[in-house]
Amino acid sequence: MAAIQKFKIVFFVPPSALSACKTAIFNAGAGRFPGPAGYTECAFTSKGVGQFRPGDAANPHIGEVGKLEEVEECRVEAICLNRDIAVQAIKALKEAHPYEEPAYEVYKMEEF
């Protein structure tokens, strides 16, 4: 039997939108841990400070065009058990996220 292909998605979100974004990715299938125990909605969340400077053509959710902004954000990490789920989770994240351009990363995981 072939090993399950796993991906990790990581995204950054203001605390006010944390619950909505996690719900969106979980509904898309992210956060399910492989194995017989049936764990779902698994994620790791940490708090930090993000920064950005919106460009001239931006329509920022927070801050002003041209002004450096520092905001409290949460970093969320969750596993996806195949590429299709990772793609659907990112699509759901983009729909739920309040930012004009949400920051996210996707990593392919290796089995050892």
Automatic annotation (TrEMBL):
PROSITE patterns on file: PROKAR_LIPOPROTEIN
Domain of life of the native organism: Eukaryota
Protein name: ATP phosphoribosyltransferase
Organism for this UniProt entry: Aaosphaeria arxii CBS 175.79
Lineage, top ranks: Eukaryota, Fungi, Dikarya, Ascomycota, Pezizomycotina
